[in-house]
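Re: that backbone. C-alpha cells:
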C-alpha cells in the first residue's frame, strides 16, 4: 500500500510516517518505481509507535520499545523499566504543574482585579516581588 493508505489506516500524518522512516523507526519496502510500499507489518509498527507516543514515550524510548517488541527473547523487566522511567517523568511533571498551579492560585488571590494598575501577577512575572 502507498503512504496515503498507510496514513489512513494508522491515522498518522504522512509527514510523521516519513519522519519515522527518516530516523530509522520503520523501513518500508520500495516498489520498482521507487515508491514506498507499506505492508500490514509496517502498519502494525506504525500503530505501535502511535500508541507509544500517545503514552508520552520519546522517540528513543519508542525505538527501544519497538526493539523489545520485536525481540521474542526479551526480558519483560526491560519493558517494565522503561515504563517505570516514564511514570517517574510523569510524576515529576505533575509535581511541577502542581507547584505552578499553587503559585498562580496565590497570585490570583493576591490580585485585586479592579481598576487599580498595581498587579501582583505582573509583579511576580517581572521579578519585582
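Recovered sequence:
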Amino acid at each position: 500500500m502507498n503512504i496515503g493508505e498507510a496514513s489512513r489506516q494508522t491515522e498518522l500524518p504522512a509527514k510523521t510516517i516519513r519522519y519515522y522512516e527518516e530516523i530509522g523507526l520503520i523501513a518500508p519496502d520500495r516498489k520498482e518505481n521507487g515508491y514506498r510500499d507499506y505492508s500490514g507489518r509496517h502498519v502494525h509498527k506504525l500503530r505501535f509507535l502511535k500508541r507509544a507516543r500517545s503514552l508520552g514515550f520519546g522517540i528513543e524510548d519508542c525505538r527501544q520499545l519497538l526493539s523489545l517488541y520485536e525481540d521474542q527473547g526479551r526480558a519483560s523487566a526491560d519493558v517494565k523499566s522503561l515504563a517505570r522511567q516514564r511514570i517517574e517523568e510523569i510524576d515529576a511533571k505533575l509535581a511541577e504543574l502542581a507547584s505552578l498551579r499553587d503559585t498562580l492560585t496565590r497570585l490570583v488571590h493576591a490580585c485585586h482585579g479592579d481598576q487599580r494598575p498595581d498587579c501582583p501577577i505582573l509583579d511576580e512575572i517581572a521579578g519585582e516581588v
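Helices lie at 3-10, 14-22, 40-54, 59-70, 76-110, 120-126. The chain has a mean pLDDT of 94.
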